[in-house]
Amino acid sequence: GAGVSQSPSNKVTEKGKDVELRCDPISGHTALYWYRQSLGQGLEFLIYFQGNSAPDKSGLPSDRFSAERTGGSVSTLTIQRTQQEDSAVYLCASSPSGYNEQFFGPGTRLTVL
Amino acid sequence: AQSVTQLDSQVPVFEEAPVELRCNYSSSVSVYLFWYVQYPNQGLQLLLKYLSGSTLVESINGFEAEFNKSQTSFHLRKPSVHISDTAEYFCAAIGSNQGGKLIFGQGTELSVKP
Question: Going by DSSP bridges, is the β-strand pair B64-68/B19-21 parallel, antiparallel, or unpaired?
Fold first, then answer.
């Protein structure tokens, strides 16, 4: 079956612009996670969804970051007024339930000039 | 604090040699443990997992890891590596009472040389 997909695969933007990153999880997976992978910080958790609710937003770096999930499926991560330090690979993962293996998408590489 | 530690950032080995990638976790994380592999310019792929049961878990391509509760370790081993095993390997644990989010180690870059 289809795995987790993310779009775009690459995004180059100018400092101060807003960006939206999309994640399509595996069908039927109720749990969805966003992580960020950068050279200096490794792999960091950003936010977790169970269904359409986000019980854990503790990893979002600032209020410029937000995310939503609709229909228990697609999720969008939005970064407002992007900064150069936001440059990273943003990874989405889904899981059948909260305490199980997670399946990762290919990531979106964000470059902020 | 909940943490996962990979003791080696880089491990160079020759082809057909054995390898061990070390991983220790803090006692405050859950004992749901994973190894993920990331090949160059690719996403994360699950290599193997420990959720319960036998403490020795194996992957289809010859890797194995052993859950050791007393030493809070989950080291990854392979008796004979191939060039194609060159990749970055991440150890991860599910945080306790945190909805299943993964806490990752810093990663170990395995470089297999001919």
Answer: unpaired
| A43 exposure class (CB count in 10 Å sphere: 0-12, 13-18, 19+) | buried
Strands A31-38 and A88-95: antiparallel
**pLDDT tens sequence across A46-83:** 999 999 999 888 899 999 999 999 998 999 999 999 99
Residues of chain A positioned with their CB less than 8 A from the CB of B99:
31, 48, 50, 55-56, 98
Partner residue facing A101 (CB), from B46, B98, B101:
B46
- Asked if B100 and B89 touch (Cβ cutoff 8 Å), the reply is no
Chain B contact probe: residue of A45, A49, A92 with most B CBs at under 10 A: A45
pLDDT band at B99 (very low <50, low <70, confident <90, very high): confident
Instruction: Report d(CA A77, CA A40) in Å as an integer.
Output: 21
What is the DSSP pairing of strand A10-13 with strand A108-112?
parallel
Amino acid, res. A71: G
For chain A, the C-alpha Rg in angstroms (whole number) is: 13
